[in-house]
Amino acid sequence: MDATGWLQRREPLPVGVFGASTGAAAALRAAAAVGAERGTGIGAVVSRGGRPDLAGPCLGDVRSPTLLVVGGRDPRVLELNQQALAELRCEKRLDVVAEATHLFEEPGTLDEVAELAREWFTEHLAERSD
């Protein structure tokens, strides 16, 4: 949250955050808190193999467009992301990378995540900076 505030004071451009595993909860909590404090918030969030459920009640406060990316061979995390998706009250999407496990170590799976994140950030951050 401090880093986002520092950036926005220097250059008021939209900020995107990317969180993996438990870092996804931190990214979502920051998006909820920054949005509440400053009114502008974080422009977009991407979670890779994340645990958005760990953001708890903050999920309902997130207003930033949020993309959840989960490995198709990570059934427990997929289930947790589906539950979190239902709690989010913002523009949201869940994408499943079919052959990926939790760490996305399989060939090409991180490339797919990078492309999904690029598309999400481009769509949601570029329109706000024009």
Q: H/E element string? A: HEHEEHEH
Quaternary state reads single chain
Helix/strand class: alpha/beta
Q: What is the alpha-carbon Rg in Å? A: 14 Å
> Which percent band covers the strand fraction?
15-25%
Distance between the termini: 24 Å
Regions with little confidence, pLDDT below 50 for 5+ residues: none
Rounded mean pLDDT is 90
Number of helices: 4
Q: What overall form do the CA principal axes indicate?
A: globular
Helix content: 40-55%
| Strand arrangement in the largest pleated sheet | 1-2-3-4
- Count the E strands: 4
Q: Give a quick account of the main beta sheet: strands, pairing sense, barrel closure.
A: 4 strands, parallel
Can you walk through the features of this model?
There is one protein chain. The protein is an alpha/beta fold. The chain has four helices and four strands, in the order αβαββαβα. A four-stranded parallel sheet has the order 1-2-3-4, with helices on both faces. The radius of gyration is 14 Å and the shape is globular. The mean pLDDT is 90.
Keywords:
4 strands; alpha/beta; globular; 130 residues; 4 helices
At a glance:
The protein is an alpha/beta fold. The protein has four helices and four strands.
What is the strand and helix layout of this fold?
Blueprint: H1 2-10, E1 16-20, H2 23-38, E2 44-48, E3 66-71, H3 75-87, E4 92-97, H4 109-129
Parallel strand pairs: 1-2, 2-3, 3-4
